[in-house]
Design a protein that fits this description.
The chain is built from 7 helices and 10 strands. It is an alpha/beta fold and 207 residues long. The chain is globular and about 55 Å long. InterPro entries: FL_hydrolase_MqnB, Nucleoside_phosphorylase_d, Nucleoside_phosphorylase_sf.
Length: 207
């Protein structure tokens, strides 16, 4: 099985680079955001055969009781706010008849998936940091909800190209008014890469 590990920034998978290179597992750094991810991933897939895309990164979580640093499997991811504003009422793209917002993981049949908590994702262009916007998230989404800037784009490309896709994120911060002092980026990256190496090793053992 040809695996491709995808991340937005090199920092998110830097601790795994030697392992990936020694194991001959290719990786792709797309850049931050949905547009960069869609372009870089599509361009790569035009030139390389990939069976399984593993998208990894860090993200923020809505649940203030969650443990920072914990790794989650993102089962479905939504392009947040894709639709129209009708005088304060949001009309989803599905109701407009022009597409869809929510894309799901697509694991290989019979693959033994890791035992981690599962969550829904939202993919945003503007990370939430205002109290009123966060309250609206709390009113409209069930916990756990994880925010990133790339997840739905990876799922979208994988669906279009008809390849398997999984997404895992380690929690670096809560979705709250911007508070850099409370972020645990180092811990999230460490845990993410420990998880990634263990998961890839388990895939190699099962092949």
């Amino acid at each position: 099985m040809q695996i491709l590990v995808v991340a937005a920034t090199i920092e998110e998978i830097d601790p795994s680079r030697s392992f990936l290179e020694d194991s001959s597992i290719p990786y792709l750094i797309t850049g931050v955001g949905m547009v960069a991810t869609t372009y870089a991933l599509t361009r790569h897939l035009q030139k390389h055969n990939v069976d399984l895309l593993i998208h990894v990164g860090i993200g923020g979580i809505l649940d203030q009781s969650a443990c920072l640093g914990e790794v989650y499997q993102i089962c479905a991811d939504e392009i947040f706010g894709l639709g129209a504003d009708d005088n304060g009422l949001f009309i989803p793209i599905e109701e407009l008849g022009f597409g869809k917002r929510i894309y799901a993981e697509n694991p290989p049949v019979n693959m033994q998936l890791p035992q981690v908590n599962k969550a829904k994702g939202i993919t945003v262009n503007n990370v939430h940091g205002a109290t009123d916007a966060i309250i609206r998230l709390q009113q409209h989404y069930k916990k756990p909800l994880i925010e990133s800037m790339e997840g739905a784009a990876a799922f979208f490309v994988a669906e279009q190209e008809k390849i398997y896709c999984l997404q895992f994120r380690a929690i670096s911060n809560y979705i709250e008014p911007r508070n850099r002092d409370a972020w645990k980026i180092g811990l999230a990256i460490k845990n993410l890469n420990d998880f990634l190496k263990e998961f890839l090793e388990s895939l190699n053992r099962s092949c």
